[in-house]
Amino acid sequence: RTSTQALAHTRRGAAAMAMTRHLSVLALFALGMQAAAGQTVEWVAGTSLAGTTFKTYMGEQVCIDLKIKGPQDQDLDVVKATVEKPGVYPYAAGNAAAAVFAYPHDEINFPASGALTAKVDFSSASYRTVDRQYCFTPEPGEECVYTVCFEGQLIANSGVPTGVVTATASCHRIEVHNSVLKLGGAGHKAEVASLSNLITPKDGLTVSAWVYPECDASPVARNESILVFGSNRNIATPYGADTGLDIRNAIMWQEDKNNQGSFFYYDCYSGAFFTTARFCCGSWHFVSFSIGEDNAGTLYVDGVGEDKLAVANSLEKLVTESVEFTTASRPDNGLDADDQGYFRLGESFKGYLDEVHVYNRGLSAPEVSSLASNRRPVGTVASLTMRPGNSTTPTLTGGAATIDMPYPVMVPCVMGMSHSVGPSDGSCPTEVFGWGFTDSVNPKVSFGGVEVRATYVNATTLTVETPGHISPRFVDVLASNDGVSFTDTAKVGKAAKHLYMESALYLTGQGNSGASADFVCLDLPTRAVTFGAWVCPKCGPPVPDAPPPPAAA
C-alpha cells in the first residue's frame, strides 16, 4: 500500500508540473500577443504608390518596390495578399485609385512567373526596415492585366506570423501590352539599314509578317506595298546607267472598291502572283513568301492553303491560300560594294504591321505554319517586334509610328462576363471582358471546352452567344485570338466562370400571366395524351401589386 500511495503521489506531482508548464506557455503566448498588439507594421518611403498602373511588354521586366518598417526585435516580411477583402482591398471606398480596380479587375490575380525578391534590409536601435521587390517578366501566355496586392506582416521570434499586418494593402495594376507599326499611307515607311546585305542569294529567302490593312471606305481600288526588298542601284556603264531591278522581292496588297482584297508577291524579274480577291480589310492576316535554292517560291496567306472549319461541326470555313511561283530574284546584298539594297515596310501601305521575320533560307509549309504562332522564332536573319531597343529596330519616317495594339498571336485572358449565369440550352448573348483581344479572322470563346465564334468589339470586350451545355455546372471561360491558343488560367492567375442553370417558368399568380404552346395540340386529336411537369408552389402570402410608375418630374 505504501508503494502504491507513493506512485500516486508521484503521478499527481507530475500532472501538477505539466499543468504549470502548460499555463506558463499560455501565459507567455498571451504576453506575446499583448506585446504584438502594441506593435505596428507600416509602409514607408520607397514603396511604389498604391494604385499605380505598371506597363510592360513581352520579355521586358517590370518591378514594384515594397518597403515596410516595424519593431527592431521582430522579424518582418512582405507577402502576397491572395484573398480580397471587399471594401478594404483591392477596391477601397474613398480610395483615389478605386477606378483602377473596378470590375472586372476587382479580384486579385498574380502572373505565374512573377516573384518577390529581397533587397537590402536595415536595422537601427529602435526599428527595422525590410525592402522587397516584386518583379515580373511576361512570358508567352502571360500577356494579361493583373491586380496584385501585398501586405507587410510581423513575425514572432518563433517564426510564426503574429497576425499584425500593415493597416492597408499595397495594390497595383500590371498591364502587358504589345507594340505594332502604324502606317498611314503615302510617305509613311520604316526601313532597316543594310538588312539586304545579310542575305546570301544562293541560299533562298523567307519573309513573314502579320498584316492589318485598314478599310478606307473608298470606291476607288488601291494597290499598296507592305514590305519590299529593293535596290537604289545606279551605276554608269558604257551603255548607260545600270539601275538594276528596283523591286527585288515584295509583298503587296490590292483592294477593290468593295473592300475585298488580294495579297500578292511581286518582283521586277518574274512579275506578280495574286491570291483570290477574298481577304477582308480591317482584320489581321498572316502573310509570308518562301523561295528555295531552286528558285521555287510560294506565297502563303492565313495558313498553307487548306481551308478549315472555323468551329467544329459548323459550315463556316476559314479562308487560306497558297500561290506558287518561280523567281531568281534576290535582295541586292552589296557584294559589289555599292550598298544600294534596302528593306522597307509600308511606303504606301495604310494599316498595321507586326512580327516581321526574315530568314536566309526557304521554309517548308509546316515551318511556315508554325511560324504564324511562334513568339520567339530562332534562326532568323532579322526579327522586327516593333519594340524600341530590340536587336532589329526599323527607322521610322514620314509619320510612321509604333502604337500599343494586340495582335493574333497574343493569347488573351478572360476577366469576367456581363452574364455569369445562363441557361443550359445556351443562346444567351453576353459580353466577355478581358485583355488582349484583337480583330482577327477567327476569335473564339470556349465554355468548358465547347468553342463558339466570337465578335470583336475592342481590345477588352468580345460578344458571344453561349453554347448549350450539361446542367447545372460551372465551366471555365477561355478566349482565343487565333482559334487555337486559349487563355491559360494557371499562367494568368484567374479562372473566369460561367454557371449553367436549368431554365424555369416563374408565375406570379396574378392576372392572366402564363405561357402558351397551343401548336402542340395540332398533332393530338387522334391520339391519347399524357403530360406532366415539375412544379414548385411558392408558399406564403400573395405577391403584392406592382408599384405605380414614378410621377413625371
| Major sheet | 8 strands, antiparallel
Low-confidence stretches: 1-36
Mean pLDDT across the residues is 84
Q: Assign the structural class, choosing from mainly alpha, mainly beta, alpha/beta, alpha+beta, or little secondary structure.
A: mainly beta
The coarse overall form would be flat
Instruction: Count every beta strand, where a strand is a DSSP E run of 2 or more residues.
Output: 39
Q: Give the helix tally.
A: 3
Using only C-alpha atoms, the radius of gyration works out to: 34 Å
Q: Beta-strand percentage?
A: 35-45%
Cα distance, first to last residue?
99 Å
Helix content: under 10%
Q: Can you walk me through this structure?
A:
- The protein contains three helices and 39 strands.
- The strands form eight sheets. Strands 11, 13, 21, 22, 25, 27, 28 and 30 form an eight-stranded antiparallel beta sheet that branches.
- A hairpin with a 5-residue loop joins strand 8 and strand 9.
- The model is unreliable at 1-36 (pLDDT under 50).
